[in-house]
Structures
1.
Amino acid sequence: MTAQFDSTATSERGAVTKDRKNGHDAAGPVASLHQGGRYRAPQDSAIVDTDIHIYFPTNDILRSYLEPHWQDYHRTFGSRGFDGSHYPRAMPNAARHDAWPEDGTPPGSNLPLLQEQLLDRWNIEVGVLNPLVGAGEQRNLAFGAAFARATNDWQLAEWLDPDPRLRASIIVPWEDGELSAAEIDRWGSHPGFVHALLIARTKEPLGRRKYWPMYEAASRHDVPIAIHFGGAGGVPITGSGYPNHYIEDHGGMPQTFQSQVISLIFEGVFQEFPTLKFVLIEGGFAWIPPMLWRMDSAWRKLGGEVPHVTEPPSDLFRRHFWVSTQPMEEPFKPEQFRQLLGQMDMDDRLLFATDYPHWDFDAPDRAFPVPLDKDRRRKFMAENARELYKL
Amino acid sequence: MSESTRIDCDIHNEIPALETLYPYLPDHWLDYCRESAFNGPDAADYPDSVPTAAREDSSPKPDLTEVQDRALKDVEIGILNCAYRVQSVRNEDLAASLAAAVNQWQVEHWLEKEPRLRASIVVPSHSPPLAAKEVDRWGDHPGFVQVILPVRAEAPYGNRRYDPIYAAAVKHDLALGIHYGGAPGHPPTPTGWPSYFIEDYANMAQVFQSQVISLVCEGAFERFPSLRVALIEGGFTWLPSLMWRIDKEWKGLRHNTPYVRRPPSEYMRTHLRFTIQPLDAPPNPLHLAQILDQCGAEDLLMYASDYPHRHDNHDILLDLLTADQREKICSANARAFYRL
């Protein structure tokens, strides 16, 4: 043991030299698994992409959808959210280098390019748009509500109408339950809008009662609530303060998702709203089994504090949650991926997603680290999403 | 395997009351404690009366006799982890004096009275220079084997601000123990304050995960290649998923942290050890066996009872192990890690 700790410095340097010679990904047993002959799946099944990002091409176009007062407001103050969680992305707009339209507008803002690079290229049957425009993170809640309304009108006019393969998210000002409920009521029966979209780092844990009016509206219309990677709620992004690097921000998102699940389940949301559905997008999923084991164990010992939780948390999770696949954790060995799927026991709940146009895009033929059997592949790639979103 | 070869890496010795520390405080702080409204650290991170705080016939703050009778039965060596939250005392000088008093109390009331015990140095880690001084004060005492930090802190532990503590620990060949709890003043989740204790409890595993990410990605193990860290009372079944995720992040984002020279999981395996309670085990032993295999747990886990806290029975884990693996997890790993 002593020797193991004392010898690390030299052996590490040896490894680095070798590593650099072999190129970017060649760093020991972990990376080598995926080098070169990485598994490519045949494209023999339909694809529903549950995570596509679109953006306003320009601020003028955003403002053209805002009421006149809010146009002035946006021109004067811009977007005002919470400070403290600024981790500059590893690439501009967190985008693939090839996803920039020629006219210099942002990746994900140009429908023909999105059709070419994603919908046509991969023969996507249905794609769900998740616009991360920041409407829900506005400190001015009335402006947030106006921003959400504008974004929803824009999605309908400029994306859903021109391309029948696309579906939209109901953007809501989530820090205000009543305003969010109003926006869900506005779109809840429109077949083009398939879920209401929140972001993972909210100001308070999502089980808190201030959010319940939003859940009531979602239940009323049977609209799932989607929670997507990211956000800035104004508190440190870990339970132990602010880390330093983007890799910790990006790699630390599963911890945020776990906190939201723990809150939703223990604060009694599913006893109050027994038909409510949640979709966790871009959080990965390998963290789910150990989180469920911990929650069940905590509930057995400490459940007396939350008498409204009358069944094991793992049962509630498997009934109320769906999960998108990207970014997929990559186990050291292929069989460990199958072990993970077995531990999850959620074959009907995994939803394929590309995350276009972001840098960590998952291509449909390479996303899964192992070949899937036909049944699982069909479910993950399309069927589960069709069922959830009534496509 | 005979029970007598167990090393228990997590036994709690808590300060019964602020008055316990009076004999060890300097005059100024003794007067302050007597005259002011100060009652001890303000940290309700583990109420004494919650069902996990003590077993049916245990006290949440056991004394030496109870620990000898109950926790040390069939145990060769027991490591004490005192959770007195000096880190939650805003006045850093008072916090430092309280830590010194706690450590003196541990020597007189525990280490000098029971040769099977080892202890952890309590430090005002929110003031790293003062914390390093406290490590230096006790670093050569054979009874102290680690520096103990609460998992929740003002900043993640990979941050360079903590380097003086790590330099002192490494200098004295002490381990670092990161333990459940802490009350630094900001919320225990990345999304604000939950309503219930059960949420804080369940969320604590994520804080441990964040600390692992920070220690690895902020380069603590490159700056201190001999630093070794025990993660205590935070579970371990989440380790494979974290290794997979952070290794993948590193492949895409390693230019972000050029001083992270190897896949993150390699640092985790080399520098981290985990105590076995709480198990947070799956109901299916096959799934637990998969987890153990996925992270190479036989070299990473260290037996702990977490006395007097109440947990699930650990037989589901021990029953899966070969004799050799049992020996490693029940004693050999801790013996090597703590230089016992």
Note: Chain B has one domain: 3-337.
2.
Amino acid sequence: MAGLDLERMSVLVVEDSPFIRSLLINSLKILGVGKVVTKDHGGEAIEFIKLVHSDPMKAGLMTIDIIMSNWDMSPVDGMMLLRWVRRHKDSPDRYKPFVMITAYSEPNRVTEARDMGVTEFLTKPFTINAIAEKLTSIILHPRQFVHTKDYFGPDRRRQNLPFDGENRRKLTEESDEVEVIRV
Amino acid sequence: MSKKPVRVRYYRFKNRLKEKAAGIGSDSKEIQAIDPEALARAEAALEQMAEDYPDWVKSIIDKLAAEHRRAVDTPHERRPIFERIRRIAHDMKGQGGTFGYPLITDFASSLHDFAGPNVGMTDNHVEIIKAHIDSMRVVINERIEGDGGQNGQMLKKGLQQAIEKYTRMK
């Protein structure tokens, strides 16, 4: 079995705590990630994402492959950053994989981020295995993006599980109202 | 009959990240996971960093103590001070467990609650904050790892008693 080679990957880490930041940088580097850039909060991250898009030479980076962001930061927190990436007109890539790092695991907070289009969660305290798992899932099993009037983000249905009761999933890929776009 | 308007769009991408991660000359169909050896190395490095954790927490506890002194000296500033304490506590509670100090996580979690916006900001609350800071300092100075056995239980009990005492005095 060949291992993932992350040498050509670049990850943007957005984290305000210096200790956790250095922890993440080191973990990613040792896992083989070629380029790790860090920003202190969401506002700096947004500026950097724009710079990479408009002037990659100045940014020193051609692309950002994955964003990993803490949730609780100020002034611009992880949710605001996620909203910007997914919905703002200036966002250069609304499909960017986004990992939310959080000590919050209350169901309503998880739902809130999921409905904003988060790709993966990394719960603090995190382990190397958890980081590796999220990266592997993003790289090997990316989900299609869904765009409806209420939602834009990775498909929230990760598995097609059997269910009881009436089938209320009216639309199928063959319906007129469904369009499949291959990019 | 005219077509109904589109209500759902699925975007399916070519997996460029996987191509990028396949390495030069290898077949992207074969790659399955991160190399277990790299994982083991990363785990070891995290352990190495964990050894610096007590020093880091010490510096954070000093910060908390400075905020506590400010809360005593400038009672009218307590709202922003409590807010800062709450943020620091939030940060601490996320990592204690990772580095073998679940008691730090417990105490930081409790401190986070007691510094919350709806708990109050009287002198007794400031004492409760101080009791948390003192308890965390003992954990780090004495390097009380894991649940700390008997010492850990005593510390927890001591903090609980302090909380009850000052809560009653309200």
Note: Chain B has a mean pLDDT of 87.
